[in-house]
Specification:
The chain has about 190 residues and is of the alpha+beta class. The chain is built from 6 helices and 12 strands. The strands form 5 sheets. Strands 10-1-12-11 form a 4-stranded mixed sheet.
Length: about 190
Amino acid sequence: MSDKPRYGMVIDTRHCVGCQTCTVSCKISNEVPGNAQWNHMESLDGDVLYQSTGTFPATTLAFRPMLCNHCEDPACAHNCPTGAMHKDEETGVVLVDQGVCIGCGYCEWTCPYGAPSMDDVNHVMSKCTFCIDRVKEGIEPFCVASCPANARIFGDLNDPESEVSKLLRANHGQQYKPEAGTSPNVYYI
């Protein structure tokens, strides 16, 4: 077991109701400016969000909350021309130094999850930080704390006794788009 944390999240799509409390909480609590979004929702079982699929009585409506996957091998950081997008050595969280960012958007284009988002107020890229300042204080990220369905679980993937590690072992959590080769730290059940 590494002495450094490897922060990750498990999102239980069986519990997610698509309410977008995570999206709103993130936007407001992190004061994400303009049209930038650090979280968004996708349909898990169709092309249109909030439109069920199937034929009555066998219809389904399921959601995949999306955020930065804080990858072990982040494409956004590898392709950032200025080094603004980087992986924090202490926490492993992928961050953007907005003082260095030139707002070219290349990180968003190369990210298989489309996680970086243009801050159209300050004309730089922005993205989910896993609320690392809160985490360092022992407080959950805003999206986890606000989820009314308890569909998001956050913790140290290097700690086999953490709730996220136990959930992954018990439920065989899966990464989204593992074929991208980035080794994401967000898993879905």
